[in-house]
Design a protein that fits this description.
Layout lengths: L1 E10 L4 E9 L2 E6 L8 E4 L4 E4 L1 E6 L4 E2 L2 E2 L4 H10 L2 E10 L5 H12 L6 E8 L4 H12 L4 E5 L10 H14 L2 E5 L3 H13 L6 H5 L3 H18 L3 E3 L5 H12 L4 E5 L1 H5 L24 H12 L5 E2 L32 H11 L5 H15 L17 E11 L18 E11 L2 E5 L2 E2 L18
Parallel strand pairs: 1-4, 1-5, 6-9, 9-10, 10-11, 11-12, 12-13, 13-14, 14-15
Antiparallel strand pairs: 1-2, 2-3, 5-16, 7-8, 16-17, 17-18, 18-19
Helix pairs in contact: 3-4, 4-7, 7-8
Bound molecules: N-(aminocarbonyl)-beta-alanine and zinc ion (ZN) (2 copies).
The site of N-(aminocarbonyl)-beta-alanine has 9 residues, from loops.
């Protein structure tokens, strides 16, 4: 099957030019001006940007967490991602205590197979650093799972002590893997939570008040120091606070191999959302929590100046009805997480390119190219080049998108961006050359998504 996309404005992390793209057998075969080729399908992209498909390296589909399971599975989640212009996701398999990584990986393959409609990979959450688990990291790498998430938060569930984190970092450094860190001081947060509850503070806003930005800054600094000592690359996930950003900046300025992602919620939403009445603050209960406004501009600046390299979503949706309500009388029981896999590309285009904070090339870089490079998928994914997968988004820079729970495709009963209008609109999405979204029509199929066996870490 050959497809030719005519006359679009191709944008990569480095280039911007008008050309035609010939797609053959799922890959970009030829790029050129007025290509004299015939194809099975001609797509007119006049007036549209042709972008590399978005890559979201932080999703939680079908994830058991907080006494319930995230409400999108790999079918609904990847479909929603596609509508939003994302063509690859990397989700998190969980090695839970007493179990092996292999068991976890097989479980997550079963969750995704037959359901995912876009390509996907897995990181592995490490919840114990015992010798057998550390040994198993090599086997994961051999199977294309080349990154591992660890936590200084959630004591008793995912948190591993500093010695364990250090051992895993050493091992990652040896085998070419990347450790991603959820950096908040979970032990101190638990004390603050206990004290808040003892004083009868049960409303959603206490989730944020008991997880102060200083505790994110402290944990971020700590794991950066551990990674330096272990001589391992490090990636900080869902960075939300200026204090954490300062720790990343300092380390990068000293030449350390440290990277960080932030998420749209930390750029667009704020602590004020927790003050919404009638338990609506629960919609925004996630960890780290939303911060006050001054943190937002620091994060945008970090994206512009390459102190932050990636925007991912941490998509982890829970319905208000039945799920968030578990914490009606106790904020600590509200399942942590919020939806975002569908809104990411549009929000970052709007707040970044539309508002003049990011160039178009930088927008592509933080939403597709850098995620692909840092997580071993480049140049198969994350750019538009001869030989790359034809994962493409036809994006209308003059369109407008209004966001609502009624029109979004995520399986959740609210949208954190309800009523917001963003500049730009996704018009068409191709995954490995196949049109899977055409306007408001979904043409993807459950199970067509392929597992991406990722390579080991290479300095981008
Ligand atoms: O609140 C969040 N972030 N939920 C998902 C799990 C995690 O820590 O990323
Ligand atoms: Zn996390
Ligand atoms: Zn997460």
């Amino acid at each position: 099957m050959k497809t030719v996309i005519r006359n679009g404005e191709i944008v990569t992390a480095t280039d911007r030019y008008r050309a035609d793209i010939l797609v053959d057998n799922g890959r970009v075969a030829l790029i050129g001006s007025k290509l004299a080729v015939s194809a099975d399908r001609e797509i007119n992209a006049d007036g549209l940007l042709v972008l590399p498909g978005g890559i979201d390296v932080h999703t939680h589909f079908d994830m058991p967490f907080g006494g319930t399971t995230s409400s999108d599975d790999f079918a609904t989640g990847t479909r929603a991602a596609a509508f939003g212009g994302t063509t690859t996701i990397v989700d998190f398999a969980i090695q839970s205590r007493g179990h092996t990584m292999q068991e976890a990986l097989e479980t997550w393959h079963r969750k995704a197979e037959g359901k995912a409609s876009i390509d996907y990979g897995f990181h592995m959450i490490v919840s114990e650093a015992r010798p057998e688990i550390l040994r198993e990291m090599q086997s994961m790498v051999d199977q294309g799972v080349t990154s591992f998430k660890m936590f200084t938060a959630y004591p008793g569930v995912f948190m591993v002590d500093d010695g364990g984190i250090f051992r895993a970092l050493q091992r990652a450094g040896e085998i070419g893997a990347m450790i991603s860190m959820h950096a908040e001081n979970g032990s101190v947060i638990d004390v603050l939570v206990e004290q808040a509850l003892a004083q009868g503070h049960v409303e959603p806003k206490y989730h944020a008040l008991t997880r102060p930005p200083e505790m994110e800054g402290e944990a971020t600094h700590r794991v950066i120091v551990l990674a330096a000592l272990a001589q391992s690359p490090l990636y900080i996930v869902h960075l939300s606070a200026a204090q954490a950003l300062d720790a990343v900046i300092q380390a990068r300025d000293q030449g350390q191999t440290v990277f960080a992602e932030t998420c749209p919620q930390y750029l667009f939403l704020s602590y004020d959302n927790y003050e919404e009445p009638d338990f609506n603050g629960a919609k925004y209960v996630m960890s780290p929590p939303l911060r006050t406004h001054e943190h937002q501009e620091r994060l945008w600046r970090g994206l512009r100046t390459n102190d932050l390299q990636v925007v991912a979503t941490d998509h982890c949706p829970f319905c208000m009805k039945d799920q968030k309500v578990l914490g009606r009388d106790n904020f600590a029981k509200i399942p942590n997480g919020a939806p975002g896999v569908e809104t990411r590309m549009s929000l970052i285009y709007d707040g970044g390119v539309g508002s003049g904070r990011l160039s178009l090339n930088r927008f592509v870089e933080v939403t597709a190219t850098m995620p692909a490079k840092l997580f071993g998928m480049f140049p198969q994914k994350g750019t538009i080049a001869v030989g790359s997968d034809a994962d493409l988004v036809l994006f209308d820079p003059n369109g407008r998108t209004r966001w609502s729970v009624d029109t979004a495709h995520m399986r959740v009963d609210y949208n954190p961006y309800e009523g917001r209008e963003t500049v730009g609109a996704v018009r068409m999405v191709l995954s490995r050359g196949e049109v899977i979204v055409d306007g408001s029509t979904y043409l993807g199929r459950e199970g067509r998504g392929e597992f991406v066996k990722r390579a080991t870490f290479r300095q981008p």
